[in-house]
Design a protein that fits this description.
The protein has nine helices and ten strands. It is of the alpha+beta class and 324 residues long. It folds into two domains: 157 residues, no CATH class; 132 residues. The protein starts with a helix and ends in a 6-residue tail after the last helix.
């Protein structure tokens, strides 16, 4: 999902790229985008909610175009926020990144590695420690703001170092319905759909990410239940997961998801070209295509996780225990 979100927002940003840039001014803007407590209208540690997920469409961060934030794996707290800002061309983006890095070094940041990442030590600027990452993406610059403590917590949750003590709760997200037939036919409905498309897709993809996260956390909770009931240990869980991930059914589902990705990215490329060329009809048609493809991919995702849940239930039945 994150790949699709990235392509979507780069397509949007490319349509409004500046004709020229004040390198010093843009470097200052990029260097000041993150703080020790967050960036682009998000605070580190905010809990996942529909409001947080849809805030990405807010235009107050302009000329930055924020993406959906990243959350800690189980506790679902904002740990990373990022945005893309467009430059006139790739060489300008490279120079601005270099100048922004120099500014960060004067503000207490230290190089974190060799890839234009800069860390602010715990306690500096009143925060627990944060990191700024700068990455050239074509004519644009991706600026990533991360909380180091929450990043460490996320890794511990992913690795299972944090014991799951309660069943995860799915996030309730109200997604918009599919577009009506021939929405692109009339100028008024076409314009309305084009205007709303970014917000609609952000919410639909946020729903997909949130649903996948919930399903994964539920699977981990199922495994924890089996261990708590004394019928599994860590070795049993590894064998079960390996068997599930290499089953013909799961591999077929995973292949189908992989094959669905490239057509979506191609349709997003068409969408971006139409938007940049001010082709409202082409933009609308491409948007409708993307909408349908993403919804089908999410439906396939639901089938996959339903299959995984069934495997856990079957394992519990085999072991003669009940799962909550």
């Amino acid at each position: 999902m994150r790949i699709i979100i990235a392509a979507l927002f780069i397509a949007l940003a490319a349509a409004v790229a500046p004709a020229r840039a004040d390198v010093a001014g843009e470097a200052a803007r990029v260097a000041g985008a993150c703080s020790a407590t967050g960036g682009f209208g998000y605070r580190f540690g905010e809990p996942e909610s529909q409001e947080v997920l849809t805030r990405v469409t807010d235009q107050t961060a302009a000329p930055f175009h924020p993406w959906k934030p990243e959350f800690t794996h189980s506790s679902r707290l904002v740990r990373t926020v990022d945005a893309v800002i467009m430059m006139p061309d790739a060489p300008t983006a490279i120079v601005v990144i270099a100048e922004a890095g120099k500014l960060l070094l004067t503000r207490g940041y230290k190089p974190a590695d060799g890839n234009d990442n800069y860390a602010l030590a715990p306690g500096a600027d009143g925060g627990p420690g944060s990191q700024v990452g700068l990455l050239q993406m074509g004519d644009g610059i991706l600026v990533e703001c991360s909380d180091l403590a929450l990043g460490a917590r996320h890794r511990d949750e992913v690795l299972g170092k944090v014991v799951v003590t309660a069943r995860p709760t799915p996030l309730s997200i109200n997604i918009p319905p599919p577009p009506v037939p021939d929405v692109c036919g009339a100028a008024a409905s076409r314009e309305a759909y084009n205007t709303a498309f970014m917000g609609r897709m952000t919410l639909i993809m946020a729903y997909g990410d949130s649903s996948a996260s919930y399903a994964e956390r539920l699977a981990r909770w199922r495994g924890q239940q089996l261990k708590d009931k004394g019928v599994w240990d860590a070795g049993d869980e590894r064998v079960f997961r390996n068997r599930a991930l290499h089953s013909p059914t799961y591999l077929q589902m995973a292949e189908r998801s992989t094959q669905a990705l490239m057509p979506i990215l191609k349709a997003l490329e068409t969408y971006g070209e139409a938007q940049e060329g001010h082709d409202a009809l082409g933009e609308c048609n491409a948007a409708v295509t993307v909408d349908g493809m993403v919804r089908r991919m999410l439906a396939d995702q639901t089938v996959t996780w339903t299959y995984v849940e069934g495997l856990y239930q079957a394992e519990a039945t085999r072991l003669k225990v009940a799962l909550d």
